[in-house]
Structure to design on (378 residues):
């Protein structure tokens, strides 16, 4: 990782992440190369390789920085309106999965991760685990307040997000806000 | 596809599918090549390419032939014990996801499909759509008999299988029979 205290390095890092996202959106994940990322970012290829081992690793960092909504855990509206909080959280996934720039990055990184155990572990540890931790705090608090069904809180979280991921990665069916509403209603009924 | 009426072609096809599965289990999806499949199956490489365009296409056919349990739609026990039918169906996924031979094939093919739209469409049309059709018939009948919650039947199906796929492909957490039981109980409660 570049030294954050070094403004030139920070600029290069930012240009590399942006270039990787753009190339993925324009040409598809499969066509992105470390060389093309370096060229687009106007840095040397060794600079890219100094900080990342693969294009998937670059794109994972790009996602973590740019994909704000769902990576930020469920927010607490401060109004105890848990249903509105959950809806906003699920809509974050829906909007991202339908974003023409972010969708190919997410699908590509998740696809590459199935063939690359190191990348899959990085997603679990750097994306999933912190998300899980933040979300569990919110869900357990809402369960204690009697606002959500008293099932295992990790299963509750899975039941909300898993159908969206299933449609994106497995069944290849549309993921829209109506679907998110239906998932939420079914889990809460 | 080889001519089923030609026993020699049928034997070659069977040897190719078996070789692909074995190589994937032994060396991982990424290391499988069309050449290695041909060598292991004792056929010429052009024979493999005549029937399949890629190793993923070979492995998808192998899965369709070997992965009997979940590809066969939900069975009807004939005893109106819908919960037992659903549990058996989910256990089919759990057992397959934990099978050391089949797990790398499923994860590999699903991963490759994220980077290969033609393969993803083949999975949707040749695996998901027929599964969906068969399962929907069973689920709708059980809903009409008042045995299952009266939510959208496609959402009902997604709610049951999606958490298992989510743990396999996204969160990278264990998928065991206890988890399947908890999913089923939460959906039915």
């Amino acid at each position: 990782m570049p030294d954050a205290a070094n403004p030139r390095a920070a600029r290069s890092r930012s240009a590399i992440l942006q270039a990787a996202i753009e190339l993925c959106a324009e040409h598809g994940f499969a066509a992105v190369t470390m060389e093309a990322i370096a060229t687009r970012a106007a840095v040397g290829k060794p600079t890219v390789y100094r900080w990342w081992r693969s294009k998937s690793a670059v794109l994972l960092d790009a996602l973590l920085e740019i994909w704000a909504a769902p990576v930020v855990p469920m927010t607490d509206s401060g109004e105890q309106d848990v249903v509105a909080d959950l809806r906003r959280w699920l809509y974050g996934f829906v909007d991202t999965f339908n974003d023409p720039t972010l969708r190919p990055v997410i699908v590509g990184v998740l696809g590459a991760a199935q063939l690359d155990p190191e990348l899959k572990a990085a997603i679990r540890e750097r994306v999933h685990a912190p998300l899980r931790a933040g979300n569990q705090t919110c869900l357990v608090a809402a369960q204690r307040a009697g606002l959500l069904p008293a099932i295992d809180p990790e299963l509750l979280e899975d039941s909300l997000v898993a159908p969206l991921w299933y449609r994106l990665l497995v069944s290849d069916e549309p993921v829209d806000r109506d679907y998110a509403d239906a998932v939420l209603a079914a889990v809460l009924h």
Remarks:
- Residues 71 and 127 of chain B are 7 Å apart (CA to CA).
- The interface with chain A takes residues 29-30, 107-108, 110-116, 120-121, 123-124, 128, 132, 149, 151-152, 155-156, 158-159, 161-163, 165-167, 169-173, 179, 182-183, 185-187, 189 of chain B (CB under 8 Å).
